[in-house]
Amino acid sequence: MRKFIFTVSLLLLAAHCFAQNAIRVRLFDGQGKIGSVTLSGDVPVVAALPNGFVLSDSWTIQATASSMLVATESAAFELTGPVEFWVESADSQANLVTVKAGNIARRYRGKINVSLLPQDKGLLVVNSLPQEEYLYGVVPSEVPSGWPAEALKAQALLARTYSINHLNPKGNYDLVDSTNSQVYLGYDHEKPSTNRAVDETADLVVGYDSKPAPYVYYFSTCGGQTEDSGQIWSAKVPYLVPVSCSEQPAEDLSSEEAVQKYFATPLESYCARSSSSRWEVRLTAQDLKPLLPQGAELLDLKVTRRSPGGAAVEITLCTTQGEKKITGDTNVRRQLGKNGQTLRSSFFALEKVPAEDNATEYLLRGGGWGHRVGVCQWGMEGMARQGASASEILSHFLPGTEIITCQ
Known about the structure:
By secondary structure, this protein is of the alpha+beta class. Helices cover 21% and strands 31% of the residues. It has helices at residues 10-17, 131-142, 149-165, 192-200, 229-232, 256-264, 285-288, 329-335, 377-385, 390-397; strands at residues 22-26, 36-49, 52-63, 68-71, 76-79, 83-87, 97-101, 104-108, 111-116, 123-130, 175-176, 204-208, 211-212, 218-219, 279-283, 298-306, 312-319, 322-327, 348-354, 360-366, 375-376, 402-405. Strands 1, 2, 3, 4, 5, 6, 7, 8, 9, 10 and 11 form an eleven-stranded mixed beta sheet that branches. A hairpin with a 2-residue loop joins strand 2 (36-49) and strand 3 (52-63). Helix 2 packs across helix 3 (149-165), helix 2 (131-142) packs across helix 4 and helix 3 runs antiparallel to helix 9 (377-385). The longest helix is centred in the middle third of the chain and has 17 residues, at 149-165. It is globular. The two termini are 25 Å apart.
């Protein structure tokens, strides 16, 4: 899950909290232009067309520059407005619509709305369904279903709070199905253990000051310590502060000496079982060349500013044509990434190391995966493994918050 802009109205939150929420999820986020989709079901799929309801075993929707071609095996319709599809059956297991776009085919609960995006950008495909059924598809997509039950409950609480905070009645959808919101892979990814976690936390959310906490974020692995939202995203939130992923207090890791010492010490944290708790990346001068001014040569690479949580929030490249600075967690991770991959986190110690032919390489000894603001998911797993409850897990990573009823 990535961060979103802090623009939630607390008054709207209170109203949404006590409503029967329907979530609208944009499907195939990040998959590029969706030119066509095919919809099918175990029983005929209903389409709400301008001239009435039409049933068919299969529907194909094709985008053109100015319209949609909506077709069955025996009929075709050219439409400019949105079309909604669903399945009606006495068997709830059959009330699923299979949506296929390219090589991706998934089954979804609820309804599917297909509309034409402007400027020949293809189709907008949106799944609308009750919030709790949406969570059935989110929780096992965000964490392994075999994790301890209390960790799964904590994830369900986070996902429910996040979804409530991102209702967008003025938009065409509320959330997307990727890490740009919460990962949502539909019905076929559901698991009994995670469905049970959703059911057992029904009507509960993360609260702050007796209201739903407006900014709830989580990520894979912190590497030992979480971050301050004010340092990473510039918006300071009282419960999004550096927290140690252990019983020890958080350390001030804003100096190079502190970070070097931290990564030289064996990791003892709740998230130590994560394969991303510690990692290394080597950068050569050739790797860094695309970041340099035209014709410049690299002289040195330095971390010139860190957050108290240890994130490298400013990197300076010293070149033969002067200095170039890279600022911000996202920019640092993207631009120091290698082989087209974003750096797992901006939490790393930087060290010069000798290489062949008297060249210099830069070793990044890092920890964590993600923005490291809020709740460490592998930290949840570690705490639950040690016997902590969902409430204890969330109050640890989001100090000052509590679990409240929201119905």
